[in-house]
Amino acid sequence: MEPALVLEGITKVYPGVVANRNISFSLNEGEIHAICGENGAGKSTLMKIIFGMEQPSEGRIFLKGEEVHIRSPQDAIDLGIGMVHQHFMLVPSFTVAENLVLGMEPSRYTKLDKSKAIEATRKVAEQFELKVTPEARVEDIGVGMMQKLEILKALYRGARILILDEPTAVLTPQETDELFEQLLLLKKRGHTIVFISHKLKEVKQISDRITVIRKGEVAGRFLTSQVDEREISEAMIGKLMGGGAHREHVHPGRQALRADSLTLLDENGRPVLRNLSFSLREGEILGVAGVEGNGQRELIELITGQRRLQEGSLSYGEKELRPRSIGQVRSLGLAYIPEDRMRNGCATGGTIWENLITNRLSDKRFSRRSWLRKREIENDSRRLVGEYDIRCSSISDNVGQLSGGNIQKVVVARECASDPSILVADQPTRGVDINSAEQIHRKIIEMSRNRTAVLLVSADLGELLDLCTSLIVLFNGEITARFEDISDLDEKELGFYMLGIKRQGGVS
């Protein structure tokens, strides 16, 4: 059988950086082909070339035996190639149907024909057995339905080759199982699927073949049935991985943070948090699990001073406070690793040393009488770059020039260097490669050992179960479960509480 898509000698050079070097691989019709690699290895660049978002510096692309030139995403769509991005490309205020037909709207008297849009959505959803609610607004649906909608958008436009970038990043185990069933159905229909993921267990479960990319080059090609996770990991990072980082038995100390009866309404008067109470103690790693959009973001914004309290109270140590600013909360010893490192975590136009020092400018080691002590700052920055294995040529490099994983390590290094009493870590390893994630995990455990209280919010259930000493689950702005001992808890059981299928009695 002739391959559906072939890449020959693809090279992509940016000023001073070779992102892809002489990459060749093929996609067979009706297969699920996994692409694995560390953050910054060149996976995303390669997929952008296939989807026409980037142009190769060298190399050729063949579709069903004929050479093609994909100069834009529209060219890719016209050739039957679709891409579902890790961060959904949907308009929240539009309905499911309006998002599906966007750019291809059926019209009546120059206006969108909503009934035809709804009909088209129902038809394509039925055809591919992907259940969605056409009339629902995207801002009101769950991430599982958003994922289906993104896939349906590509199929509606005629995609035969689907590129899925980290498609399970924000899904529960149950939603992941459902997605995999749907991908297998598409495979049976002859669709070709490119599955980009760092979750090797899922790669083994769903794929037929695996291509590993390391430092911009192909580092391994495998039949999935003939390789194990350890071999894939070794190909990705060039060495055997350790056993990973795991929680330690701790004796929690004094109260570091307490939330009492937090209630929050959004701009439309709808409850986002409902009478939410919990406490966090010294040395404890308290996990917060929940499907994205169930109050996690608002809770963190309240705790870190980004949002004003409406009802309820927050206590930092023994001090009850209604935070008025981020600076006020930080002065109490709170550090914060934000979910979005690019928007909230760093100044991309600043140097590495500038980003590493921003939360410690008042420290007398680094400033005196409003003057920066440059030598001390540079020495400390070099120490942190070495300790956190931040890959750069100089501490004077702009942070924006680093890979995503290295930017995340800059953020983690800065926050942990302040020796906080409370660390709020929101998706600390999202979009980070295996090696970097393990380094961050070990640092979180080390901080817990040194009596820092850690609040860990993560969509990666394996991360929560590996690191946390206790756990709460949020659903619809409420705590539906509390676990003081999670040694017997598994991902599927946790997923039932996250989806609201289960709820512990007496929990509020």
From TrEMBL:
Keywords recorded for this protein, A-Z: ATP-binding, Cell membrane, Membrane, Nucleotide-binding, Repeat, Sugar transport, Translocase, Transport
Pfam family, one: ABC_tran
Membrane-spanning intervals of the chain: none
UniProt GO molecular function: ATP binding; ATP hydrolysis activity
Domain (ABC transporter) ranges: 5-240, 257-501
GO terms for cellular component: plasma membrane
SMART domains for this protein: AAA
Source domain of life: Bacteria
Repeat recorded as keyword: yes
Subcellular location: Cell membrane
Topology of the protein relative to the lipid bilayer: Peripheral membrane protein
Keyword Translocase: yes
Signal peptide: none
The protein, known as: ABC transporter related protein
Provenance organism: Sediminispirochaeta smaragdinae (strain DSM 11293 / JCM 15392 / SEBR 4228) (Spirochaeta smaragdinae)
